[in-house]
Write a structure and sequence with these properties.
It is a single chain. The protein is mostly helical. The chain has a domain of 67 residues: Helix Hairpins. The N and C termini lie far apart (62 Å).
């Protein structure tokens, strides 16, 4: 009886040791957990901040304020009475501003 109990503890310990080693040796599911953000992601962030007229390291409140200001400035409805060419230009700029804000917010 005692021998069976000791053997079962040894088997459990061996199984746990094998599982622990397998978990530690397995690569992470997402490579971003091991490394920092990719250089491409950093350059995209800088580009999005530049579109909003901000610097690297801007706070979320600053990003939101800049987006609201630029969205109001470049909204196509504000220049609808000035002709279709200007509406096309402002709608392209508005799309850029919106895409930059969505990228920075992770949406």
């Amino acid at each position: 009886m005692l021998v069976r109990l000791v053997l079962s503890f040894i088997v459990i310990w061996l199984v746990m040791t094998v599982f622990r080693a397998a978990i530690q040796a397995a690569p992470p599911r997402d490579p971003r957990y091991r490394r920092g953000p990719s250089p491409n992601l950093q350059s995209q962030r800088r580009e999005a901040l530049a579109i909003l007229g901000l610097y690297d390291g801007a706070k979320p409140a600053e990003i939101k304020r800049a987006y609201k200001d630029l969205a109001a400035k470049y909204h196509p409805d504000r220049v609808a009475h000035l002709g279709p060419e200007l509406v096309d230009l402002t709608s392209e700029k508005f799309k850029q501003v919106s895409a930059a804000y969505r990228f920075l917010n992770g949406k």
